């Protein structure tokens, strides 16, 4: 039987790693692969954080030769049902999903989800990838918002209004319980997700923080 791979991603910092893993496996097996994400909201209600992830995933999927990037908007059905439908339509034989505590995919850690999924698609080999918890936002960070880094005499300053002098565009996750802009700024460089620490509106030692590739970029 010819192989075909489906990578399932959900909003968070680990989608890039799963897509790279799917691309590598597809290259090894010399077969097509697809990327799927599911959202219960309609497309016109997507917030800026989700739009950011989708844009970057599309770029990465294309870079790694994905046949199609599939988005299921306004989806009220159980995730397993949606995955099963896409898997059957595209003759999927290998399914890649991530095991992480900070997203809806945490259901994967419960046996019931795996059983339901395997009942939906018993013909598919299931790969559950343990992904890094580099940014566990639950309880520690507020919802991400679009932000920019602008270089000045003191370093790279965080700002929320786009100007011609912006150097980097990304998503800022503010620490819960702080009155100042302290947190994590995530952005893309050459299709690799990077993150730097923001302290009182500034990124200190920017070059040092970005000198080594992030773990997800190594996949």
From TrEMBL:
GO terms for molecular function: kinase activity. It comes from the Bacteria. Keywords: Kinase, Transferase. Gene3D superfamilies: HUPs. InterPro entries: Histidine_kinase_KdpD, Rossmann-like_a/b/a_fold. This is Histidine kinase.
